[in-house]
Design goal:
Serine Threonine Protein Phosphatase 5, Tetratricopeptide repeat
Length: 298
């Protein structure tokens, strides 16, 4: 199971999924806690891969065991349910999913606070802050994110701290504070570029690319977003690779040379069949449809 988790954190979803599946096949029903944790971790992998319904299926498999397990596993269960509903809410613009996500986040906080698990309190606060930011509640989101950051500073958890910095960078972008947004993104990149958390690294590179676009530093943005694409694609993260390319079209379309635009269009078209997230697929389709006619003689 730990090996599967390593594959997952590196963005190798197919190998991680296969290893988790083997674990679940080998475990019998008597190993209730380990089996439940494997299901939760597999659900998390499926969520990151954009397969939200598969994630919900795995969580519902774990549901029957939750009542007899302790608050740590129960908190993990609610945290993963909340994050999956968060992604569904963003993907499908569904208010019911938002309510379910908030409900599960607060239940996860309750469980983790009951046993004083600071790391998972911080993780929950960061995810909750991200959802609130998406909903436009910047002031409440900032409170949650700063609380999460303080927790990870106390724990000296650099990876989770970088994840919070990435979310804070997005919050500063939403508030049009480009200096703070770039500072937070740079801090996250500095931490992650020497590690093996490729999923997170690709995400923070995309955020930094967006900051550069907003500052009209398009050449630098292009280099950063190409790097984000390479990191995600190399690890089989088609969703992350698609986001990086999509960012180039959405934010840099008018600045791209014809050949560059054609290359991005070609790569995005090939990725489209592998993108499961509905909102991302829709954005890609719209971006491809809105690409101006290319003058091949220029």
């Amino acid at each position: 199971m730990e090996l599967a988790l390593c594959y997952y954190r590196q963005g190798n979803f197919d190998l991680g999924r296969a290893t988790f599946t083997k674990v679940l096949r080998d475990l019998d029903e008597d190993h209730c806690e380990i089996r439940c944790l494997a299901l939760i971790r597999l659900a998390s992998l499926e969520r990151h891969a954009g397969r939200f319904q598969d994630a919900l299926t795995r969580l519902n498999e774990a549901k029957s065991s939750i009542e007899v397990l302790g608050p740590w596993v129960t908190g993990r269960y609610h945290l993963e349910f909340a994050s999956t509903y968060k992604e569904l809410a963003i993907s499908m613009f569904d208010k019911d999913f938002i309510s379910l996500s908030l409900e599960h986040y607060y239940e996860a906080l309750h469980q983790f606070e009951a046993i004083g698990n600071l790391r998972f309190i911080g993780i929950t606060e960061n995810n909750l802050g991200f959802l609130l930011l998406t909903l436009g509640s910047c002031s409440i989101a900032k409170y949650r994110l700063l609380r999460a950051r303080k927790i990870f500073e106390v724990l000296a958890d650099k990876v989770r701290l970088a994840q919070v910095d990435d979310t804070l960078s997005r919050l500063h972008l939403a508030e049009s504070n480009l200096d703070l947004a770039e500072e937070a993104a740079n801090q996250a990149i500095e931490t992650l570029q020497s590690g093996d958390e490729d999923i997170l690294f690709s995400e923070v590179l995309i955020t930094k690319g967006l900051v550069c676009c907003r500052r009209h530093r398009y050449r630098e943005a292009g280099r950063i977003l190409e790097r984000a694409y390479d990191v995600a694609f190399r690890r089989g993260d088609r969703e992350g690779a698609g986001r990086a390319l999509l960012m180039m079209l959405e934010e840099m379309g008018g600045e791209l040379a014809n050949d560059d635009r054609k290359d991005i269009e070609f790569r995005l078209t090939r990725l489209l069949t592998d993108i499961r997230e509905a909102s991302l697929r829709l954005r890609v389709q719209r971006a491809l449809a809105n690409i101006p006619e290319i003058d091949f003689q220029s």
